Fold each of these.
Amino acid sequence: MNDVVVLDYGFGNVRSVLRAVEKNKASVKLSADFNEALEAKGLIIPGVGAFAACMKGLEQVRANEIIDRRLVANKPVLGICVGMQVMFESGWEHGIKSEGLGQWPGIVDQINAPVLPHMGFNSIEVAIGSKMFSEIAQEQFYFLHSFAAKKLEFRDSSKIINPLIHYATHFEQFIAAVENGPLWATQFHPEKSGPAGLKLINNWLETLDEK
Amino acid sequence: MTLSKRVIACLDVKNGKVVKGVNFENLVQIGDPVVFAEAYAGAGVDELVFLDVAASVENRKTMIEVVERTAENVFVPLCVGGGISSVSDVLLLLKAGCDKVSVNTSAVKNPLLISQIAEKFGSQVITLSIDAKKGNSESGYVITTHGGNKTLELDAIKWITQAIELGAGEILLNSIDADGTKHGFDLEMLRLVREVCTVPLIASGGAGQVSDFAPAIMAGADAVLAASVFHSGQITIDEVKKDLVLNKIPVRYSPQTN
């Protein structure tokens, strides 16, 4: 069994993601296979480009079912960039609303800024108690996007442990990363964020053995 | 808590080798772009540009192999330009592991290439690179091709505005007048372009000393790019970032310890 599977659904610059995992001494495979994605200790959902197009690709590999079943079993999933955005209920692009995987309430929308895309390194307002940003809370991470989720609030928060939500700002505040039990996600690209990004991947890999 | 300004190094690549001297301390010149990319990443560069200066069909395969090896070893963003004239060219490069592509002459010839790439992969992957200089047009700046040798009757501001409407996600603005002079970036042109530019703007051409970079950012650039002054070792990434910090410009900076 592989430690990590990177879900292959035709989207995302996966070469650096694969290598970033390998650099941290974990075995990794790019796969679209249902069972492999289900059984790996950790699953990474990459994503680049349009929300709607990524959703189509994810549906073809039954990603919704894979992710649901993994999360119920407390098996870690990490979404990156559009791979994070699709975890929300819906995404707005060019006036068209697309349905997301709906793991989290909230919508993904264009950032309200005079200059877009939000492109480059930015710092993170790290929430207290973060494992994701352990030892790298002061570092900067590489963003390349125009859309983001601004808010994540569970309607009935009395029954669940609230997720840790980390923010970044580009003229307005948006969600840069989330730690929600076995489901983690980053709007930025850890695989393009130098040593700090590799450390973040390592922080995630450490949770694979705990869970 | 704000977006850092980027410092970008550009490498000219021909047949899989770096052309123009690249001179890093303690580094044997073997000409492999991956080795230099790793050195730049270690030095704290925020982004790398590989410019395919031969861009022939055979050379394209070599470039893809270079991009693959770079993506496997270098964990900073990579933009590749030179000879990209179709959506399938872009697909191959993105699959190989680069994050963005830059188009120049091919987009001037066929502006719809910009919208085709943007629709397929998103605006964030497409950088429009332009070589502009002073000339007779409305804004006073015109577009050139073939490294500045061929001047077109195309107004620089008009072209930039059109390209952004078509979906260009970034403008790499190279000044032919300033390029190679080492007298600093063309600040006047940068200010003019910034007024119409709603996407990130990279200043290129003219960097000669450490103190040249901050004025370009103050004139409106989101990123500064240089090639020969970095390759020759005349200026280091660390020195540039240190100077930007002194000028209270937000950067990703951790002092080099060695």
Note: Residues 24-29 of chain B have pLDDT under 50 and may be disordered.
Amino acid sequence: MFDEEKLKEIKEKRQEWEKSCLEPFMKKGGERQEKFENLSWVEIKNVYDPADIAHLDYIRDINYPGEYPFTRGVYPTMYRGRLWTMRQFSGFGTAEDTNERWKLLLKEGQTGLSTAFDFPTLMGLDSDDPLSDGEVGKVGVAIDTLKDFEILFDGIPLDKVSTSFTINPPAGIILAMYVAIGDMQGVPREQLRGTIQNDMLKEFHAQNTLVLPPEPSIKIITDIFEWGVEVVPKFNLISISGYHIREAGSTAVQELAFTIADGMAYVEAAIERGIDIDKLAPQLSFFFNSHNNFFEEIAKFRAARRMWAKIMRDEYGAKNPRSWWLKFHTQTAGCSLTAQQPLNNIVRTTIQAMAAVIGGTQSLHTNSFDEAWALPSEEAVRVALRTQQIIAFESGIPDTIDPLAGSYYVEWLTDKMEKLAWNYIERIRKMGEGSVLRGVLQGIETGFFIKEISNAAASFQREVEEGKRIIVGVNKYTIEEQLKIPILKVDPEVQRKQIERLKKVKAERDNKAVKDALDWIRNASENNENVMPAILEAVKAYASVGEIMGVLKEVYGTYKKPIII
Amino acid sequence: MRKIRVLVAKVGLDGHDRGAKVVARFLRDAGFEVIYTGLHRTPQEVAMAAVQEDADVVGISLHSGAHMTLVPKVINYIKEYGGDPDEIVILVGGIIPEDEFDELKAKGVDGIFIPGTPIAEIVEFIKEMVPKKKEKARLKKTA
């Protein structure tokens, strides 16, 4: 980025500075640590200068926002045009409870909805399943049938609000329910906006919401792509997620690498199916974590955009520049929250949210300070949302696009993250003999991803135990404290109410129609046809999540994760 | 004397296993014999493993909010399958609201460890509690 002569001068100047300025000063006391490393154990130098980024070319590698390779952002106006979507993940208890919380959040200025489901729903089980005992409505809203969805979206117009659904094995069922609600509200399907997470690969690596084996999981995800590009063209059909990989203990580099590799795997599966990549690409979205190391996170987001643009254009041949965009949601790092001195979490979340905004996120969830204890209380959720609003309206951060571009450190680190991530992707591609899709499946089978993530988690914990990594309030600056934070309690009656409602629905529905639709799902699966039309039919007949998943489990079997610690 | 045997268990539908696995690894490094159940176990499966493996310690990890239902079930099934919860140190780790500590302890839990607990503290707790509980159970039996 600099001419040779100038660069030579700078390099000489650096040597002179080190000798005449730095060295004598170092003799007085030196540095606090022998070595400085970020959360990916990348060593960080004392000072970065033009020589560190001399190999980068502004137009080729950075360029203007809205232009390839989109390092500075996917939109030409970014937050000067429209702020990111403030999208707090929420849900608990029954559909009534969550509907009420959602209306409160919308009133408080939230601009999109994001659904947390309870564990039975996430795993595709009904509330009356013996395995659901004690878990109904606990960490999210309980959904058994379309009836619950009708209550959940009561008074929420689907043509005005977009909703994100954190759902994986039953993602197709939830998408079908959303379409059914849209039909009831009279909203044209092509206007429906929202996101289903629908990313099973990261479940196998990290998040463990596991029902069907990997290959059939990919088959169903590809069905959703094939159906979704035609039926709901404005809906994000997947949110390719690094968030959970990071929460499980990966480094930022692993989060970046495995997420991009998973994204490549899905695109390869779609291409194998014959789906037009330029049609699908705008319906792909990503989801990253934002942790404490401020610059590392910003660099990760910038690197992710640049990598995806290269991959979509150069590897998979997408023609439309729109297909090269990496759009992403960010959530601040749940794993960084401490149970100790919980108010400190507001500060952590603020730093992480700033990194996400400076990194150019399209939507953001900020965690609440009490989440190492329980689901967030109303007050805690409000502070979390206010954190975003303060960044948006008081900090001035959104006023210029990609404000850290050109920082010697941030550009160097962006490039470094990209290189380290590519190393992983090439390893994965090799495991799949040239196919990233096969490589990822192979890595799931051999436990490659699990081992990589577990080892990083253990190394991090070791450093915390040894006091090498400081966590304020946990291994330094600890106090004896009496906690006074109000904790949200889920009504213990939820399970009973939910089971009752399910019984009532089953008694009142047309059971012949349910059976026919379930048979259609079975036949479509056995004949390797797209299962989505049958799922929509079943949902509309009020078949339950558990019944639909049950048929898929009968056809494909279930997955047991290898035990690796 | 045989090594202290610890069963680390994930019970219920919750898949958050980072804590359980890191703790299992560190307990193994601390010299205990560690058995990890893997994910999504029912209370029956965990109790059966505890009895069959003759565990001195059962550490149950939950991030699902289902602890008040599932943990007492594990303890009851241990009894049902012929184990003696008086002799076994029962630990719970994960997202547990502080105002539920007393009730869990009343139901037979010996120690509760929330996020941020130094693993060294868990190791010390186990070393102290295992002989203590066994001695207490012995005295109770002979009395």
Note: DSSP finds 22 helices and ten strands in chain A.
Amino acid sequence: MLCRSCNVLFRVQCTSKLNIMRSTAKQSATEERDPAPIFFNSNVQQLLKKLTRVDLNKVFRTKNYGVPLRAPEYKFLTTEELDEAMKNAEKKAERKLQMPPVVKVRTEEPEVLSYDCELQDHSETKFVFTDISFGFSDRERMIVVRDVNGTLRKATPDERHRMNETYFPRSGRKLRMPHMFEKEYLKRLLDQGNYEFVLDRACLQFEPDDPTYQDVTATTYEAVERAQHYNSLRSTRHFGPFAFHLAWNKSIDSLLLDLIETDRLDEAVSLIQLYHIVNPEAKSVSSHFEPGLEHSFIQAYVESDSKKRSVLELALQANVELHKQRAEVEAGVRRAHGHT
Amino acid sequence: MPFPASGGGAYMRFTPKIIRFQRHGCTNRPFFHIVVMEKRFEQHSQVIEQLGTYDHLTNQHNERLVALNFERIRYWLGRGALTSDPVAELLGKALEMLLFGALSVISKQDKF
């Protein structure tokens, strides 16, 4: 008898504990890391800006997006005026290259403001109320829905998008999602290499926490990565989020290889530093970068964390040889000039 | 000289004002402006100000769209404007929004 009651007690306790364990396991599996605080960190922003590699010719080039072209203006400037103009252009370029934010996919259910059972079946249709008062942005604007069952709730993101687009249309943004973001058409566009066009339009059409936006951008980034067309995104506002996406998904190896092969060691170092900040559990986190020791810093990453170790090691070796040869030539030139 | 649909009508000081619908659209396709105007004037005379719109017909998502400028509606209600019954019904359906909207206006004033 005693034994049976003990048994029952034990089972009850065990099941409750097991349930707790199961629920925590489920939570940790479903709870994804939020990239926003890391992305907006000032260090990370600086690294991303460095990786973007600003080229003013590319930033201010004309895009064929249907806007009529303006005739260029020619001016005579003194040196000071030219410096001033260049400084202004750099400021403007910085504004143009502001990166679209990388945030978590939204999941939240719309907040219910009140249950009014008296209003049940007040109408056969929902009522969507939009506050069109002056001075609110699209994200702040109050949009609520009175459902058929009488509850008053905030609008879902989809409804918000439609209402904002109905009452405050923005040129280029469409009420319905353009067909180009559907899978088959998107694939064709990416095969043709129109990455920047796709990303620009996705920025305009969607909110950054929209699941469709994140799908489209991830697909595009993967296409760029697969085709290794890194130059098509460089000097655009999308290179930062692209590099962040690679670091987030632990697949920076191809980009790193490209940087080593083109002898951009400072950028390679920035990329690895970004990787360390995004993935603090990486094995090579303990290695610190000191100016002048780029090769050993990269070597530490390649040895412990990279997935394409052999290729990267070969490229790095070639780069070391290149630097050695360059130093030798320089020393020879100095010697020839009589500086020992 | 016709006045714009959004308002511009003469404002008289001591006469009653009313917030009401004004039918626009065309035959078999009603569309209403929510306007504030002199109570004794007929519907299509000039209005003092437009405060919103109301689309009476349901759209493909089974919704009726109402746009309301709550800032101005609060102003006119505070000035003692009356409301017609259909408008009062609409405002009642969005009552919490009227209250929450007041909060958001306060936060906006803080911001600037």
Note: The first helix of chain B runs from residue 70 to 78.
Amino acid sequence: MSERRELTEEEAARKAWMSLLAKAPAARLVALWAEAGREAGFTWLRAPEVGGVMVRGRAGGTGAAFNLGEMSVTRCALKTEAGAVGHAMVQGRDRKKAEIAALVDAGMQGADAPRLRAELLDPLEAEMTAARAARAARADQTKVDFFTMVRGED
Amino acid sequence: MYVAVKGGEKAIDKAHEWLEDERRGDVSVTELSVAQIREQLALAVNRVMAEGSLYDPDLAALAIKQARGDLIEAIFLIRAYRTTLPRFGYSQPVDTGAMACDRRISATFKDVPGGQVLGPTFDYTHRLLDFALEAEGLERPEAPTEAAEHPVMPRVTEFLNREGLIQDEVPPAAQADQPGDLTREPLELPADRPLRLQALTRGDEGFVLSMAYSTQRGYAKNHPFVGELRIGAVPVEAEIPELGFAIEVGEITLTECETVNQFLGSKSEPPQFTRGYGLVFGQTERKAISMALVDRALRWKELGEDDKGAPAQDEEFVLYHSDNIQATGFLEHIKLPHYVDFQSELELVRKIRREADAAQQGVRREAAE
């Protein structure tokens, strides 16, 4: 595994949209893609393949790395008719989700990027942020103050 | 020893057909969907993911349905499936300090930055059966409409660390930070801490719980406090080799437990608090706490503590018996046909008895003469 390095601005932007797509609920991504109507011709560089990534943790949260267990992911790579290469590695076993994620990745590298951003990535991100915020609000309501009782043993 | 048998196909087919029927149960009752199991039996799903060692809630739910709710059978199904998956790589170690917490409590400090957050817990319930659940379509409590952000929740052990009162937890140099992997190499002893943690996190909840409980009752007592328990979501980053950088490939829910343990010091270490660590897939609190206690007990050697001969200190005993799939495989195989094996045992016992009888008769004859 390579050392962490500073990403270029383009790499950081690409990482952000690829990460968003990887975590997106499959059904929402498929629906938004259909709404956006961006079906385009492409050829597979690597057809969707389901596999596992071994997730690691650290002892004590900050110490030595250890292997925690695997998670299922699907990856693929494709080349659009416009010549852009799209990659995807997404959570779960949904091949269609991986295909759409790779198509969006390819599209985001060309002139279509602003429309894809507005019609697909932005709504997806807003929904995921809202779901997260709702959960945070729910957690916040369960915040407690415990009072230590005096034991009366003076 | 098990010797292969032939035949019985028809009976086996009929047995499996019947199993299908029994799984479905009374057809006048609506069939359970995989999505219902995933959403409404989430803690069973979490256990299957943790011990099956594969984070995939849909698959775990399917396995539970197929196994008729037998969780060890479901874990077996997941383990078998897991071996068919190509390994795309290893993630970066997850940053649990940046977890979006649903729950976060500390039993050692009342006032912790970020607060004590109970989350969806069984704690403080009365453990009385709720007969209202027998009815369907119950009204649900209103969810909050306002949005919030997950507060920053620094690790509780960091406070103690600032004073140098707790043993430090720093990663080894990057080249040395390559943990062994039980799914690639069979377990060899002595195991280092990363290997032990991997074995414990996928170990049987009941076994790890009992081992942990034994330390509390006095077998290798190490006075644990739950310094912190947190449950929530973390992103998982993995490198995409073609791109040369890592992306988040998903988000998973984890339960993390850090115990703070009394430690009076040893020949090699000053008096300070020490740590036990538990990290488990899903909302799996009992397991994470148990894991932390057993992790701490197994660390006696590196901390220069005495071997008290307690089961929880015995790495070989704990690690070789924590895996319920290994255990059930060996245990349950003895119900399969062992006819040849048993036949030879039968012969042996008959022979010994014949010899014993002959010897007895010899003695009696001598006595009569």
Note: Chain A has one domain: 18-138.
